[in-house]
Design brief:
Layout (H helix, E strand, L loop, with lengths): L1 H9 L4 E2 L2 E2 L1 H21 L1 H7 L5 H30 L1 H22 L16 H32 L6 H31 L1 E2 L5 E2 L1 H21 L13 H18 L21 H16 L4 H7 L5 H6 L6 H7 L1 H23 L6 H29 L9 E7 L7 E4 L4 E2 L6 E3 L3 E6 L5 E6 L5 E6 L7 E4 L10 E7 L6 E2 L14 E3 L2 E9 L2 E9 L4 E6 L12 E6 L10 H24 L6 H26 L4 H24 L6 H11 L4 H19 L5 H4 L1
Parallel strand pairs: 5-11, 13-18
Antiparallel strand pairs: 1-2, 3-4, 5-8, 6-7, 6-9, 9-10, 11-12, 13-15, 14-16, 16-17, 18-19
């Protein structure tokens, strides 16, 4: 409007190198906010799984519920900014909510708050769960609410003569989004791997979530610091509300005139003619045509967003050191490289070959790439499953024997049949009450009751008459760590580094140690020796300490492998990340460009809202499958998702085949002509809108992917 234009002209805008100084605050603000969001999200599912001790399905469900909420709240933020507070106040208020959420989330990860007995595990999980859920809701409201406002607010800072600077700003703006994502997904997993705590040292979730919280506070402070330099426009009203009212009126009017006595109309939206402008109705028809194509799209996001949940959990069952850090950054790195390659090389090459690779065909191919990524993930999972132990069912028990007696023994277990037990392997029983006999002189016999669904080791000490059962781990150690314990065959108490004192013939509880070389010092009075062992990922060991441990300087300590280490390398995940990112580039970027080319310029916010809803619905589908599907094998779930996406891509390709491409500007011009608008006015308005659209097209590529 003229009033708005005058207000902007009257405002003094300080410039530096031809750019408004205010945009430097906005760019720094966006970098810090994106670092905060992606950094928190990078370790979120691991926090659920290993701090709150939720199972894989619940951790996946809550993760995707949070992501879905993050994709729904931008619609609310856009309505608040356009209809009530304006962009500046909306960003300020919701950033405060956002920062409070991040701080709340960081506090919820401090285990010492409820760890009264100082064993390293929270005593009141309800407190931590409630605090973290509150934090996530506030974060979702904040990040979603400001998402549609910041880029548009940055664009408001430029005058009409600064179109070149505006394009550069958007390029830098979206570069900051990808840079924030890349750095945070690289740094926060490293922060989590540190150990910290007041009373006990545990993995440092407070640091991993605290740094993003600090970055969000910095983001807010930086944005407020530039307050006096911003161009602030008043709310202009939100087009989505007008569209919803028009559609609602058309449906209500059609229902009122459902009798056959009323003549049919060409399109059901024509029932809004009595109240609404024909141009608005024509624009809504074009939008609905595009939104109809959105119906199958949530299935793509169902697969895509699992790289932050299922694929992260898959990586914890694999081996790898530096690669584990690299994997978390594969997606943003590939995005930055694949987008220009696709845009400048692949697509033009296909076009030169004479192939009609239309936007809808690109989107279909993008879906198929995502499906192939999940087939790749399923193949990797099958290889992982081959290396997993054969754990007992809920009605079975497993037992193995560890002999620290001075001579070799034959161990026989009854009833049913006599079994000669090999101490290296577990034997499975379908009954729990057993009798163990040793071929000593005299024969020693003892009855035991096994744990149903559990694994146990029969420890035979230097005095076989006191042989006993020790419960073993019955799942892979968490986060790729190694579970170790010691059996004391020495004749006196021993002190072992980082472990409690161990009595003769006793066995320590399992202790988790990280990958790499670990040193253990064994002491008894003035005697001591050092035992070293290099560990891989996800193994379990029982170390047997002989009576001669000090005389041979710990060289005689032997190990029993309770569970083999992870042997499938994380590098095998790279193909699935490459395929899913290729699919994202072909699907997401192309999808938004197609949408904007097939609908009026003033309806972009409606299409953006529809696009975000497909993201949200896709994450809700994951939530439902994770909670209700309960497939026995993870590879089967991956193949299920891949099959569903292939089926959906076939449906989408059929819909695309029958879709007719339109020129929205031509349709609008025709409607204006019917309404009696002057040709000069039409032409001027069309040119202005085309110029504005051309500016925005220049920054669609990489930029829409992360925003």
């Amino acid at each position: 409007s003229a009033i708005k234009k005058k207000k902007e002209e009257d405002m003094f805008t300080a410039e530096c190198c031809g750019y408004p100084i205010s945009i430097f605050f906005i760019v720094v603000n966006e970098f810090c906010e994106r670092f905060s969001y992606y950094g928190m999200r990078a370790v979120l599912v691991l926090y659920f799984r290993y701090f709150l001790l939720w199972d894989d399905d619940l951790a996946t469900s809550i993760y995707h519920a949070f992501v879905a909420l993050c994709y729904l709240t931008p619609i609310l933020g856009a309505i608040i900014a356009d209809s009530w507070l304006g962009k500046f106040k909306t960003i300020i208020y919701l950033s405060i909510v956002y920062a409070i959420g991040q701080v709340t989330m960081a506090i919820s990860t401090i285990h010492d708050i409820t760890d009264a007995n100082r064993d390293g595990t929270p005593d009141n999980f309800t407190f931590h769960i409630a605090l973290s859920m509150l934090g996530l809701i506030l974060i979702a409201l904040g990040t979603g609410g400001i998402k549609p406002c910041v880029a548009a607010f940055g664009g408001d800072q430029f005058q009409e003569h600064q179109s070149r600077q505006l394009n550069t700003f958007f390029s830098v703006f979206y570069l900051c989004i990808n840079a924030g994502s890349l750095l945070s997904t690289l740094i926060t997993p490293v922060l989590r791997a540190q150990e910290c705590g007041i009373h006990t040292q545990q993995q440092c979730y407070p640091l991993a979530f605290g740094v993003p919280a600090v970055l969000m506070v910095i983001s807010l402070v930086v944005f407020i610091a530039g307050s006096g330099m911003y161009v602030k426009t008043d709310p202009e009203g939100n087009i989505m509300w007008s569209v919803c009212k028009c559609i609602g009126f058309a449906i209500k009017n059609r229902f009122r005139h459902r009798s056959s006595s009323y003549p049919k109309r060409e399109h059901w939206m024509d029932w809004a003619n009595e109240k609404y402008d024909k141009l608005l109705i024509a624009q809504i028809k074009m939008v609905l045509k595009v939104l109809f194509l959105y119906i199958p799209l949530p299935m793509f996001w169902t697969l895509f967003d699992q790289k932050g949940s299922r694929w992260t959990l898959q990586a914890t069952t694999m081996s790898g050191d530096f690669v584990s850090i690299l994997i978390s950054t594969v997606n943003p790195i590939l995005i930055l490289t694949l987008v220009p390659i696709m845009d400048r090389l692949i697509f033009p090459l296909i076009q030169k070959c004479g192939l009609n690779f239309s936007p809808l065909k690109r989107m279909t191919v993008g879906m198929l790439f995502a499906a192939m990524a999940f087939v790749s993930a399923a193949l990797v999972q099958i290889e992982i499953d081959k290396t997993l132990p054969n754990f007992p069912s809920s009605s079975e028990s497993q037992l193995k024997v560890v002999n620290t007696y001075s001579t070799t023994l034959n161990v026989t277990i009854s009833p049913n049949e006599h079994l000669l037990i090999d101490s290296a392997d577990y034997v499975t029983f379908d009954h729990q009450d057993i009798t163990v006999s040793l071929n000593t002189n005299p024969v020693i016999t003892k009855a035991f009751s096994l744990i149903k669904g559990g694994r146990q080791t029969l420890i035979i000490p230097s005095d076989p008459t006191v042989m006993y059962l020790k419960e073993d781990v019955k799942s892979k150690p968490r986060e790729g760590k190694n579970a170790i314990r010691f059996v004391n065959g020495y004749t006196a108490d021993l002190n072992i580094t980082n472990l409690d004192s161990i009595e003769p013939s006793a066995t320590t509880n399992y202790t988790l140690v990280n990958q790499g070389k670990r040193d253990f010092v064994l002491r008894h009075g003035e005697q001591w020796c050092e035992f070293s062992r290099k560990f891989g990922f996800g193994a379990s060991y029982t170390f047997l300490i002989p009576s001669t441990v000090f005389s041979d300087d710990c060289e005689s300590i032997t190990e029993v492998e309770d569970m083999k280490p992870n042997s499938v390398h994380m590098a095998l995940q790279i193909p699935q990340y490459f395929l899913i990112t290729t699919g994202e580039v072909m699907f997401s970027v192309t999808g938004l460009q197609f949408s904007y080319s097939q609908a009026p310029k003033n309806m972009k916010s409606v299409l953006q809202a529809g696009w975000l809803c497909t993201n949200a619905v896709g994450n809700i589908i994951v939530l439902i499958v994770a909670e209700l599907g309960k497939l026995p094998k993870q590879w089967a779930e991956y193949l299920l998702f891949a099959s569903l996406l292939v089926a959906v891509s076939i449906i989408f390709s059929i819909m695309a085949y029958f879709y007719t491409y339109i020129d929205p500007a031509e349709i609008e011009a025709q409607v204006r002509k019917e309404q009696g608008l002057e040709p000069e006015e039409m032409e001027k308005e069309t040119i202005e809108m085309e110029e504005k659209d051309e500016d925005q097209k220049n920054e669609q590529g990489v930029k829409q992917t992360k925003i």
